[in-house]
Write a structure and sequence with these properties.
Layout: E1 6-11, H1 18-31, E2 36-40, H2 46-56, H3 65-89, E3 93-97, H4 100-110, H5 115-126, E4 133-138, H6 141-144, H7 161-177, E5 182-186, H8 191-210
Parallel strand pairs: 1-3, 1-4, 2-3, 4-5
Helix pairs in contact: 1-8, 2-3, 3-5, 4-5, 4-7
The structure holds thymidine-5'-phosphate (TMP).
């Protein structure tokens, strides 16, 4: 069931700059007096933020891939129920720093779990809510890890080069399969250039959505 609001998601691998870009984008929405709300995934509620800590914690390296997948979905179910669904029902622009495409890319492609199972769990946790527009900030893992401080890496970042290459391949495939909502932004560009592209594309798509 699609709601009255407009859902914008930011996706990409590690260090692609999506948190900075989504925050700058929210400043733009504020300037434009557009009713919006922003959350990150995993996170956005107290419970989901707690799960965020758990999934990133290197102490729990040994946990099974299925338990990791279910933790991401549990976090998602909570933020969808408490924030995403009500905001969309109110007609807001909901901005999400990651959503279910990350689960397919990281757990489906990265951890090599059954993709159909991941898709099914995504559908359950999101109650069928789909983004109207997704910005995929594309940068290779080789390039993006140059931006990270090695001693501060979390459990998922530490999953290895092959893992992160599979995640990148995953996002590429998801983008091809969802051409209508996916927009690829070259994340090797500078911050302001990327933001300008994001704002222009959003306004085009949002105006078209509103005039329907
Ligand atoms: P980030 O939002 O700061 O990138 O941190 C979230 C981390 O969790 C990142 O490594 C990607 C990972 N992740 C998954 O593995 N599966 C998911 O479903 C989501 C939402 C994130």
């Amino acid at each position: 069931m699609q709601k009255k609001g407009f859902l914008v998601t930011f996706e990409g691998g590690e260090g692609c700059g999506k948190s900075t870009q989504s925050q700058l984008f929210c400043q733009f929405l504020k300037q434009k007096n557009i009713n919006y709300y922003m959350a990150r995934e995993p996170g956005g509620t107290n419970f989901a933020e707690y799960i965020r800590m758990l999934v990133k914690d290197v102490t729990f390296e040994e946990k099974s891939p299925l338990s990791e997948l279910l933790l991401f979905e549990a976090a998602r179910a909570d933020v969808v129920d408490k924030i995403v669904k009500p905001m969309l029902e109110n007609g807001a622009v909901m901005v999400l720093d990651r959503f279910y495409d990350s689960t397919l890319a990281y757990q489906g492609y990265g951890r090599q779990m059954d993709k159909e199972m991941v898709k099914l769990l995504n559908k359950v946790a999101t109650e069928g809510i789909e983004p109207n527009l997704t910005f995929y900030l594309k940068i290779s893992p080789e390039e993006s890890f140059k931006r990270k401080t090695k001693d501060k890496l979390d459990l998922i970042e530490l999953s290895g080069e092959d893992f992160h290459k599979r995640v990148e391949f995953g996002f590429d495939c998801i983008a091809k399969e969802n051409k209508n909502r996916y927009v690829i932004i070259d994340a090797t560009q500078d911050r302001d250039t990327m933001q300008k592209q994001i704002r222009e594309i959003f306004m085009e798509r949002y105006n078209a959505f509103q005039s329907k």
